[in-house]
Amino acid sequence: MIVKAPSVQIDCSHCGLPVPKGLVEPDRTEQFCCSGCAGAFQLIHSNGLDSFYEMSSGDSQQRTFDRRQEKPKRFAEFDEPVFHDKFVKSTSEHGKSIELAIDGIHCAACVWLIEKLPQILPGVTAAQVNWARATVVLRWQQEQTPLSKIASTLDQLGYSPRPIHQSKHENRFRLENRRHLINIAIAAAIAGNNMLISAALYLGMFAQMSAGMSQLLRIASCGVGLAALLIPGRVFLKSAISAIRTKTPHMDLPIALALTVGTIAGTVNVIRGIGEIYFDSLAVLIFLLLVGRWIQFRQQCRAANSIELLYRLTPQTTKRIVDGQAVETLVDLVSKDDLLQIETGDLFPVDAEIITGSTAVDESILTGESKAVQKTVGEFVAAGTSNVGSRVVVRVNAIGNETRLGKIVELVEQASLEKPKIVQWANRIGGYFVVAVMLLAAVTLSWWWATGAELAIERTIALLIVACPCALALATPLAIGVALGQAAKNRIMVKGGDVLQALQNRGTIWLDKTGTLTQGDLKVEQWHGDLHWLKIAAELEQHASHPVANAIVQYAEQTAAEQNDDSKLKHRFQPEPELCRSQVGDITTIAGGGIRGRVGDFDVLIGNAKLLKNQDIAIESRHTQIANQIVASGYSPCWMVVDDRVVAIAAIGDSIRPDAVTTINKLGNLGWRIGILSGDHPEIVNRVAKRLGINSELAHGGVCPEEKLALVQENSKHETVVMVGDGVNDSAALAAATVGIAVKNGAEASLAAAPVYLAEPGLSPVMQLIQISKSTQRTMAVNFAVSIGYNLTFAALAFSGLINPLVAAIVMPISSLTVVSLSLGAGRIRKQGSKA
Amino acid sequence: MSVLYVAIPVALIIATIAVIAFVIQVKNGQFDDLETPAHRILFDDVEKKQSDHDSAE
Hints:
Low-confidence stretches of chain A: 1-7, 565-582
Number of strands of chain B: 0
Number of domains of chain B: 1
Oligomer: heterodimer
Radius of gyration of chain B: 21 Å
Largest sheet of chain A: 7 strands, mixed
Mean pLDDT of chain B: 76
Order of helices and strands of chain B: HHH
Low-confidence stretches of chain B: none
Helix content of chain A: 40-55%
Largest sheet of chain B: none
Strand content of chain B: under 5%
Number of domains of chain A: 6
Structural class of chain A: alpha+beta
Strand content of chain A: 15-25%
Distance between the termini of chain B: 63 Å
Radius of gyration of chain A: 33 Å
Distance between the termini of chain A: 45 Å
C-alpha cells in the first residue's frame, strides 16, 4: 500500500522512473509510468520471475519504454512463409530455430529474463542469449506458439526483436575461429607432451639413462613432433610454398624452413641413435606462432562484428501498395519500382523517390544533423533515414546493398578486412630478416664445410633455430592485440593498429560540436511568454515527432509537474484519442521547419524566424530583442504564433556533456591543442567554446564540409591531427585526419571513414585511447629491441660455433616467452593504471 | 624405469583423448561466445534459492 503525500515522487515499479502524477493510482501497490512498463511488469510478475528486479543493476532507467509507441506491435510478418524460408531453420518436424537481434540488453538480469522465455511461453523450448552480439537463438514449436507471439512477448518485455541478415563474413569468422582453436589445442597438447619427454631426456643425461629407454623417448618425441609439423604446422608449410611460388619473402618462409630442416635433422638423428633432436622446441614454436595468429584474427573479428551491427539499421518490413491497398510485407521481397507507403515515425527501408505527399526526413543517420530536412514529390529519400513528417508514398530506387547505406556498409567492411599497417611494416622487416637469415645460413654452411660436413650442418641448424623470427613475428600483433582488447573493454573499437602509433605524437584535436561535446538531445532552456501558451504548444507539438517538438512537450510536462497542475496534460500519459481530436486539428507540417494547427479555438503556428517571415507575420522589436538575446546565450529561438500574433519564444538549446570540461583540461595538460570545427552558427560555437575553456581562435563555427577538410589537411601537413566527429559532413575530414574518431549515434559515413569508433558517447574515451596508445608504443619498442637484440646475439654465437643446437633449442623459446610476458604484463599494468 | 614403456603411450593416449574432447566441444560451438556464460552463471544461485523456496511452500 502506498500512503504518500501527493507531493512525494513515486517511482515506476518496472523502470524506476518517476510516475507522472496523472497516472498515480492510490489504491495500488505497483505504480507505472506508462502502459509499456505496466505490461512488462504484468508479464514478468505473472510468470513468477520477480527476481528479475532483485538482480537488475542500478541503471534501470534503460528499461523504460518509448512513450510515443504505446501501441503494441503485432509482428504478423514473422509468421509469413517467406519470412520462415529466409530466416528460420527447421530442427525437427515441428521444431524451429531462429537467431534474432534484440535491442535493450544492458545487464545480466536481461540475459536471465530472456532466457526464461520457455517459462513464459509454453511452445518455446530454448532461448540462448549472446550478449556480445546482442542476439538470441530461439528454439520453439511453431504448432504450439507462432513466432509472432514470441516476438511480441519479447517486445512487451522491452526487447524489440529483429531477424538478422546473416552477413557473409559472420559464418566464415565463426568457422575460422574454430579452426584456429583446434589447431592451437593440438599444438599445445603436442608442445606440452614433447617438453615432458625432453625433460626426461635431459634429466636422463645426468642419471645414466639406459640406451633403450633413451631411444624410446626419442622415438616418442619424434612421433609427436612429426604430428605437430603435419597437423597444426602445415599452415606454415602451405604459406611458405605459396611464398616461394609468388617469389615474395614471407615471414613463414624461414619458419617453415627451420621446421622442415629441424624435423628432418631430428628424424635422421633419431634413426641414427645419436645427435640432438629438436622436436620439443619446434612444437613450442608452432604453438606460440599459432597463438599470435589467433590474436591477430580476433582483432579483425571484433571490427567485423561492429560492422555487422550496421545491418540492423534498416527495417525488416514495410507496406507495399498492391492494387491501391497497402499490404504489410518483408523488405526483402520488395523490388525496384514498387510503391511503398511509409508512415510517420517509420524508417525508410530502401532508397526511394517520393511519389505523393511531402514530409520531413530525419537524415541524422547519414548526415549527423539532427534537424529534419523537408522533402517533397520527386525528391530522393535514403534507406535508414526516418520519416518524421507525414505519411508518404515512395517508389523504390535501390534495395539492400545497392542503397547508399548498403554501399557505406560495404566500404567499412572492406576497410576492416585490410591488415593494420604497422603489422605490415613488421612483416616487411621480417622479409628482409628472412633474406638475411638465409644468407647467413648459407655462409655458415660453406664456412664450416671445410672443417667437416657434420659440424657445418649442426652449426647451420643451430643458427636457423636460434634466428627464427618468432619473437619478431609475435612482437607487434601481441602488443596491439592486448591494447585493442583493452580498448574494446572500454568500448572503444579500433579498426587498425596504426592508430595507436599515430597517437604517439601530440598535435591538435578537432571536435565537432554537435554530438561530441553536447548531449545531442534538444531542450527548452528558456520560455519567454505566458505559461498558458506552453500547454497549448505542447498539445499541438505532441502530434509531431520533430526533436524540437519533443523538447517542447517534455518541457511542458516538467513545468506542469512542478506546478502541481496536471489536469490539462493528463491525457499525454493516458492516451484518450477522442479528447485529442476534439481539441487539436488541421495539423500541417510546414516546409522549412514548423507546424501549424488548431488547438481549441486558436490557430497555432510554431516554427523558426524564416517560417514567420514566409507566413508574413509581423515581429515586434521587443521580440527581436528577446531572440537576439537567446542567440547570444548560445541557444536557438523557436517562435510561437497564435492567430497571427507572436505570443511566446522558446530558447532551444543543447546541453553540454558532463565529462567534456574535465577531459578537455586533461588533454590540454598532456600537450594537445583542442579546437572546435563545427557547422553550427559561429556565435553558438563561440559560446560553447567559452563554457569549455577552449581558445576562441581555435573555435570555428559555420564551417562547411569542404572547409573542414581543407583545415584538417592543412593542419596535418605539419602535425598529428585527430578529428572527432559524428556526421557525414565530418566524414571527409575524418578520413583526411591522421586519426579519425567517430562517435556512437553518428552517421555511418563517419564510421566508414574513421578508423576508431567510440561506442560510448563523450570525450573521455579519446583520453583513454591516447593513454593506451602511449603504453602500447612503449611495449612494442621493447619487444622489437628484445627480439632483434636476441636474434643478433645468438645468430653471431651460433655462427662462431659457440652454441650447439641443444642450447639453441633451449634458448629459442625464451625470446618468445619474454615477448609474450612483456606484452601481457604491459596490459596488466595498464589496467591497474586505468583503475587508479 | 621400465614403467615408462607403458606410461608414455598411456600419457599420449590421454592427451589425444583430451584433444579430441576439446575439438568436439569447439565444433559444438562451446567456444563461440565466451562472454554471456560468465554473466549467466551469476544468477544460477538466485534461481536455485527461489526454487528451493517455492518447493518449501
